[in-house]
Design brief:
Elements lengths: L5 E7 L8 E8 L7 E10 L2 H8 L35 E9 L10 E3 L3 E3 L9 E3 L11 E5 L4 E2 L7 H5 L2 H14 L6 E4 L5 H12 L3 E6 L4 H7 L3 E4 L9 E6 L6 H6 L1 E9 L13 H4 L4 E4 L5 H12 L7 E6 L3 H10 L5 E5 L3
Parallel strand pairs: 10-11, 10-13, 11-12, 13-14, 14-15, 16-17
Antiparallel strand pairs: 1-2, 3-4, 3-8, 3-17, 4-5, 5-9, 6-7
């Protein structure tokens, strides 16, 4: 197969609004080195991580909700300052078209990858890097990936579009449930249950045998129930106190104290997002007196995504994809994503 020298894609030129995303048709196609593969991108999901990186929300200078960021930042990526231009895109489904040396993978294999890639060291056992943040991702026709970071999903009955909707949302959700120790018969409250991560958490918690309450708006309640929620709590309503074994939170914001109070003594709170705002007020007595355990969840050990791949290849999970867009329409796709009007995931399609 003869590969082109250049490709089309979207480059992030600086932190900012949609104007920071630049469509280019002269991006050099990367060449795989030792231990690397070149992937033809088949589909790429839209997610909060890529948007947060674009607007610089990960900077400690930002204290508001994700939809309200309107300030200049210098170090807005997961690991601090980014190198621009950067091809974002952490949700990848692709096909291997070229391999470097020391690679044991067939040309033509359909693959996916976690968005948060484990890079533990002796000094930082939770070290990681992010696809589409610290190095180029899937918002282009081709993507270069380390062999150790990819998983073969050729056997999956899911479509390319569905697989592209899984890595960020389901990877994060599986991590949250794992860290909180969700098991059979437990009562679990999931915030943002109609979004990508929240709906994935509903599906995955159901597979674990949990009894699920999803927080969502009335217009999305049916979709959340269809995903596996037994109960619905209207967004903005206060959850019952001491009613849940686990709270899975991707929202944060002003309602945070009520989530802690919703936990039974000995309960677990797991967080991996704060779309309503990262700054919260806590009464430490409400945490230590009832022995509440807090889990911050970003680093994904390999076994988390390995479990997901088994579910992908056996078709036991199926993301809800509400809409697809040409990659060139990324600004519109991200605007629709931020509007929170569509449940589940949105997916971008590169040029055929």
């Amino acid at each position: 197969m003869t590969l082109p020298n250049t490709m089309k894609g979207v480059c992030l030129t600086h932190h900012g609004g949609p104007e920071a995303l630049e469509w280019r048709e002269d991006i050099p196609v990367p060449v795989p080195g030792s231990g690397q593969v070149l992937v033809r991108v088949l589909a790429a999901g839209v997610n909060n991580t890529d948007i947060n990186t674009r607007i610089g929300w990960y900077s400690s200078d930002v204290t508001g909700a994700t939809e309200g960021v309107d300030q200049e930042v210098e170090a807005g990526g997961h690991a601090g300052a980014l190198t621009f231009p950067r091809i974002q895109g952490g949700d990848l489904c692709g096909r291997v078209v070229a391999i470097g040396s020391n690679v044991d993978l067939a040309i033509g294999a359909r693959i996916t990858s976690p968005i948060n890639l484990p890079r533990p060291t002796a000094s930082n056992p939770h070290g990681y890097t992010v696809l589409g943040s610290e190095f180029d991702g899937a918002f282009a026709e081709y993507c270069l990936v380390e062999t150790a970071d990819i998983y073969d999903v050729s056997a999956s009955p899911l479509s390319d579009i569905e697989i592209a909707a899984i890595p960020c949302a389901f990877g994060t959700a599986e991590l949250l449930l794992t860290r909180a120790g969700v098991g059979d018969g437990q009562s679990v409250l999931i915030t943002g249950a109609s979004g990508g991560v929240g709906m994935a958490a509903v599906q995955l918690a159901q597979l674990r045998g949990a009894e699920i309450t999803g927080v969502t708006s009335p217009t999305k309640a049916t979709a959340v129930r269809d995903a596996g929620a037994t109960h619905i709590l209207a967004r903005g309503a206060t959850p019952e106190a001491a009613a849940y074994d686990v709270v899975i939170d991707v929202v944060g914001g002003e309602a945070w104290p009520s989530l802690i109070r919703a936990l039974k003594p000995g309960g677990h709170y797991a967080v991996s997002g704060a779309i309503a705002g990262p700054m919260v007020t806590a009464d430490l007595r409400e945490i230590y007196l009832p022995d509440i355990t807090l889990h911050g969840c970003t680093y994904q050990p390999p076994e988390v995504f390995e479990r997901l791949v088994m579910l992908i290849n056996t078709g036991k999970i199926k993301p809800l994809v509400s809409a697809t867009y040409p990659l060139q329409d990324i600004a519109r796709a991200q605007e629709d994503f931020m509007s929170k009007q569509l449940p589940g995931k949105l997916v971008l399609l590169p040029p055929a």
